Amino acid sequence: MKRKWWKEGVVYQIYPRSFYDSNGDGIGDLKGIFEKLDYLKELGVDIIWLNPIYKSPNADNGYDISDYYDIMDEFGTMEDFDKLLDEAHKRGIKIIMDLVVNHTSDEHIWFIESRKSKDNPYRDFYIWRKGKGNNPPNNWTSAFSGSAWQYDETTDEYYLHLFAVKQPDLNWDNENVRKEVYKMMKWWLDKGIDGFRMDVINFISKVEGLPYDYEAEEKGGQPGFKYYANGPKVHEYLQEMNREVLSKYDIMTVGETPGVTPEVGRLYVDYDRNELNMIFQFELMDIDSGKNKWDVKPWKLTDFKRIMYKWYQGLKEKGWNSVYLNNHDQPRMVSRFGDDKEFRVESAKLLATFVHTWQGTPYIYQGEEIGMTNVRFDSIDDYRDIETLNWYNEMIQKGHDPKELLEAIYKKGRDNARTPMQWDDSENAGFTTGKPWIKVNQNYKEINVKKALEDKNSVFYYYKKLIELRRQYPVIVYGDINLLFEDDEKIFAYTRHFEGQNLLVLMNFSKDQVEISLSRELLEKDMKLLISNYDVGELREKIFFKPYEARVYLF
Ligand code: TEU
Ligand code: CA
């Protein structure tokens, strides 16, 4: 097992728009992040992942880039960025950026040129096709509702956009596109950034001919997904990107790859294939999805364990895993996988115990370290996310009940993760002195950083301790996993083993009290309690775990 800084480090994901507003315009910014670096240093994180900060009209909050070489106005200037990077490095914190190159904004100069005429030099930077009569070229749908094709009058053709209309897909089969992307990546890497998170990077190669998807149309689902996810040349392009760019720097890369299994995922992270260091898999994030994310069904712990163990086994010795339970696209983990009411603190600590003692690089999404929860806005007018609003409007058009739609948004809407970071109990949770771009979660008086820092038993200090343990005991990073109680629907337990160090992790993923009986063999070991979210006694053959109780022992 090769030791790497990106295997040992803990990543903290910042959604800048909602992190901290330094100039009172209600929008988080780079200066705001700079002012909070010491908070992140106190938490002990090693790497910051910044969601997109490039120039953007913000149709999809920065995932629609109009200039890769400049900072979006709302977030500040390139000088602000240079200072942030320098100050982070001074604190021993690395920064990775969000690489969004499956698509650009429709306000990017390349697209402005491309749409001018069919013989414009930039025409083939994007994917243009003639319609079928008055219909789009095929039945592919956008992730943000509606067709994945937009008709453009000027040249009487359609362009492909797997996401918003304002996010035209780049044509990666055009080597000039690839050259421009690699040039831009090197420009940022030469500034000293420490790597990239790569947005839907497994969508960049589409099947030749962009086939009509009859199967998905009959079965329901997202027509086109099987023709653009994990496409025919995706590995060729990533190996080229690695040769041309990634291999020249000591950096980390994590690919966002919706719809991969461990077998497919391994092809992106296998050490011998020289593509990426790790990926974000979505199987766990789809655990409570029926026919789509809004069709919420209950999840089972045995499925949770099966998925995570399958990914551990699938990549073992060949590649590396990321471990995350939420991000800017997902609901808050304590609301989804824990209990955000009676046992919010205990279950937040329990979930963190899993993320930080499983094998793989742990990702902390801003606010989870203080147990921030989902939000419930009374009106759809308080929501901001294009995915949510497009879906809501599409469903209203189809006659669905607004109340039912809001219930689904409460469970799975992306704005759950995008309400402002809660710094203290002053107005707007100390996020801004202005009017926040999105309303603050009204539980901020209870849940905020100031309160957490004053409470030695807070979720914050539990995270801090987990991060410290990770540095202290290599078994936490590199240890093999041996699952215990596999078929139990409440207990999640395993041992870890590495170079003579051993870990025992015991977790009660339920709000019930459970009895755990341990083997004699385990009990004979000399156990040292490393961390627990309750005051616990010594290990005995039969122990009763309280709701959401977690314990980690070294032996
Ligand atoms: O998300 C890609 C993606 O798969 C999303 O459609 C996600 O699965 C969905 O939003 C979950 O509800 C990436 C970015 O993380 C997301 O913020 C962007 O909106 C999207 O790509 C387009 O750039
Ligand atoms: Ca601001």
UniProtKB/TrEMBL annotation:
Entries under SUPFAM superfamilies matching the protein: (Trans)glycosidases, Glycosyl hydrolase domain
Chief localisation class: cytoplasm
Secreted in keyword set: no
Family membership: Belongs to the glycosyl hydrolase 13 family.
UniProt keyword annotation of Nucleotidyltransferase present: no
Organism in which the protein naturally occurs: Caloramator australicus RC3
GO molecular function, one term: alpha-amylase activity
Gene3D superfamilies: Glycosidases, Golgi alpha-mannosidase II, Oligo-1,6-glucosidase, Domain 2
Ranges for domain Glycosyl hydrolase family 13 catalytic: 13-418
Protein name: Alpha amylase, catalytic region
Gene Ontology process terms (BP): oligosaccharide catabolic process
Superkingdom assignment: Bacteria
